[in-house]
Amino acid sequence: MTPGGTPRRGGVLRRAVRPPVGSTRFWVVQTLAVVIGLIHAAAAGLGPLRPVGLPDSATLVLFLLPVLYAALNFGLAGSIATAAWVTILALPVLVLSDGAGARWVDGAQLAGLDLVSLVVGRSVERERAARQAAEQAGAAHRAAEVRYRALFRGHVAPTLVADADGRVLEANPAAVQLFGHGAVGRQLNDLVPSPARGAPPSLGVLTLHDARGEQRTVRPVEVAVRAPAGGLRLLVFRDVTDEARARGRMAAYAAGVVRAQEEERRAIAAELQDELLQVLVGLARRLQALAAFPGIPPPVVSTLSEAAHLAATIGQGLGATAAGLRPPVLDDLGLEPALRGLVAGAESAAGLAGRLQVIGLEGRLCAAVELTAFRIAQEAIRNVEQHARARQLVVRLACRGDHLHLIIGDDGAGFTLPLSEGAPAGLGLLGMRERAHGLGGSLQVRCRPARGTVVTASLPATPARADCAPVRTAAAAPTVGETDSVGRDGTTVR
Predict the structure, then answer these.
(1) How many Å apart are CA 74 and CA 25, to the nearest integer?
(2) Residue range 141-182, pLDDT digits in tens
(3) The CATH number fitting domain 159-239, selected from 3.40.47.10, 3.30.830.10, 3.40.50.720, 3.30.450.20
């Protein structure tokens, strides 16, 4: 059978040559044809019937009854077999008829009878094939509906089906547990938090309360389905509560590690400045005093002077190390002076042409925000000094609204970024990103080989008088494209 429901030619021929000989009704029809054949022969050869008004051509028309009955009940196979049998019964009368005109009339009627049997049988066969195809399609549709219902109801994830306007049409049992029994018929924006009235629901991670009041974290996945009556929306809510809790524990652990590290740096820096540095300064002064004592031989004076200079050099190195661990200027004066010190240090250490731009920063910020911004800038500038082979360095600090944007750009060699978020990366880059995320901010790195690197950090601009506990809102930072570079005047240009 063809896809459109038309029977294939080979199958039709096979069925046509296989009459339903096992059916009793088929043999009853054939017996009726024999009876009509006897009547037709009697009408053609016996004189007593003619005065009654029953000519042989009229009895020949009676053969339509068994032929049509066989076609309607047995299809093409029954009609062809019956028509052949009728032809055999009528053929002797046709041959023995008197006159050529009578033969032509009877032959034409017999040929028309065979043609009618073929046409009607073919039509019945097509109708049967179409009905069978429709029944098969209906059965397949019902089976698919049953499978869909089983999968939809058995899916462990809450699943909603909505129309193009956002009205919920169906909800599986898991969705009923999450949204309650009244979910069907409501709008998606009433069930799922949306950023704007009438807008589609956000597809980020959502925190909802189920029908029992328990808090659950879900990640909705939406699939648009095309349907003849209009588009449908399928929303599957993947439960990521355990993942969110594990991520929260890891974030808390990372924040605790950073705090412990900063406290350890603060303690080490204080110990260096308060004890070792003072000891070295005192040692240098004592050695200088001994070198100036009268009567000391010149070789001893030279040795004491060198020892005093060495102690002073070691003291300067310890002071620089202490300042790198925890710069006092950051705690005493704030972020802007601390960044100026970083830029100045890069200029003297690596011979860079550095520039600091500060826009919109008024007053001090939360200590955690200032420390995070300083550590990100410190790591980025250290990378420029050690790896970039750059000539210019630009640090831009801008406070816009409730966000602080820190941009560090250079015109150095650049590097190749990892292809994915989970790909291996340097500890410095990971540390900067974790510090930004720990405050609810974001960090982006844009670079091209031989065209420089731009590091953009966005942090919440929490004032110093406010609570400095980390917030978990994403910061929307202006992105710096890969084509950004550092101009000759020290500004970042696009």
Answers:
(1) 10
(2) 889 888 888 888 888 888 888 888 888 888 888 888 888 888
(3) 3.30.450.20
